[in-house]
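Notes from the 1:1 (GR / supervisor)

We went over the backlog. Supervisor wanted to see one worked example end to end before approving the batch request, so GR pasted a single chain during the call. The sequence is below; no edits were made to it. Supervisor asked that the structure be written out right there so they could see what the output format looks like.
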Amino acid sequence: MDGVAPWFVEFANVAVPWGELFIGLGLLVGAFVRLAAFFGALMMLMFYFGNWDMAHGFINGDFAYMLVFLAVAAFAAGRILELDQYIEQYEIGGEALVEHYPVLEYILG
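Structure output shown during the call:
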């Protein structure tokens, strides 16, 4: 790997396994699904450019998984039968968490 900074390799050696763990947990339990899907798509984008090879065209497995993660985030899949719907309805001072902190609508789902 000539031309790759050693600090970046060390960062990737830590970030990739922990990212996979937390993204997978978020999607499995349905908590912070939109946030987990966003970071999953970001990771797949980095894998796509890291594995850049035009032998089979522009679309490969990394690109397809990135699109799947983006679809999960766009449709807010965590609000259907997952923990995000309960997190949103949690009350603080008599009002729902999402009403108290509106920015959470972009993270939960």
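Supervisor's comment: The longest helix spans residues 6-29.
Batch request approved.
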